[in-house]
Design a protein that fits this description.
Blueprint lengths: L6 H7 L4 H17 L7 H11 L3 H20 L8 H14 L6 H5 L5 H10 L1
Helix pairs in contact: 1-5, 2-3, 2-5, 4-5
């Protein structure tokens, strides 16, 4: 039987700063819970997501749905527009560390760039 690296451990290994790692793990698990990924722990949910993520169309679709939900929250002023990248960066890193190849340009296309975020915030 072939042994595989733990998907969450690969993700954690890419984050040497403990505070960043904790924040990224928390936001990543929020994503898994949003998708209703089965599992009693973040480790199991990460493993189950990785198994489903072999389908890039499904994976892209669910990430876009998640980002869309947060963009709607920003439009309602529930969260700041400037925090939108904080919701996709952990997902992107997790996918990269687990060899889930996606078109991130397509996924992040509708998210305002950092230099435009302040302008958007001040206009409202």
């Amino acid at each position: 039987m072939e042994e595989f690296d733990d998907p969450l451990m690969l993700f954690q290994d890419a984050l040497p700063n403990r505070l960043t790692r904790d924040r990224y793990e928390h936001r990543l698990d929020l994503f898994f819970k949003f998708l209703e990924i089965d599992g009693d722990s973040p480790e199991i949910r990460a493993e189950n997501f990785t198994k489903k993520a072999v389908d890039p169309k499904w994976t892209t679709s669910v990430i876009l749905k998640y980002i869309r939900m947060h963009k709607e929250r920003a439009e309602k002023k529930e969260i700041s527009t400037a925090t939108l990248p904080n919701y996709y960066k952990p997902i992107k890193l997790f996918c990269e560390m687990n060899d889930v190849a996606l078109n991130w340009k397509k996924i992040t296309r509708g998210i305002p760039k950092a230099k435009n975020m302040l302008r958007i915030e001040f206009q409202h």
